[in-house]
# Entry
Amino acid sequence: ERGEQAPTPGRQEAFPDCGPRPLGIYPVVDRAAWLERLLPCGVTTIQLRVKDLAGAALAREVATAVRIARAFDARLFVNDHWRLALDHGAYGVHLGQEDLAGADLPELRRAGLRLGISTHCLWELARALTHQPSYVACGPVYATTSKIMPWRPQGLAGLARWRQLVGRRPLVAIGGIDTRRAAAVAAAGADGVAMISALTGSDNPQDTARALVRQFRRHYR
Ligand code: TZP
Ligand code: MG
# Structure
């Protein structure tokens, strides 16, 4: 007699979760070839963040990354390029605040993709939470040289504050994290520890990745 229930405006369904395995060491890389190098080291979550390609070359990177991630049963998040992530069946997408308005979030959710959102201040965090994302990223935790960053570092205190506010969903820490800092970041409540330069700039990225994965497993045991 009532008919169909109209969707409540402003109420959104949650994005799927990231499964029972902690996100762990979360390398952020600019080419699919990095997946070949890092996934054999025990990394289970990785982000493809390509800022310098377009068209067929970009699509090829995404397709290759998806194929490698599947072979390792790893969770691949594609930064920015949500349509390519959809087309190629990535595990999820990672979007910044400035990307949210342009992305078809309902379509991503229907397709079962996960969504991670960057946040740099409490206002951005509040906005991110309205989308019920699969995880929230907090950064920069420390000063970073990998990105021009108008935001001041949150530090471990900021991370702990985020931890209280994000509730049960995973929290990813990013910005200036290296092998010396990873344990403290995990102890402050991060489920995922994202890194660019500590891995891609390492003399031996595979040794570094293996050491970090070992360290992280110990922390979560
Ligand atoms: N978002 C916040 S900090 C950052 C991004 C993409 C860069 C992190 O790179 P690094 O080298 O691990 O500091
Ligand atoms: Mg972006």
Remarks:
- The CA atoms of residues 182 and 206 lie 16 Å apart.
- The pocket of TZP (ligand 1) is lined by residues 118, 139-140, 144, 146-147, 149, 174-177, 195-198 (CB under 6 Å).
- Strands lie at 24-29, 45-48, 75-79, 92-95, 114-119, 135-138, 171-173, 192-195.
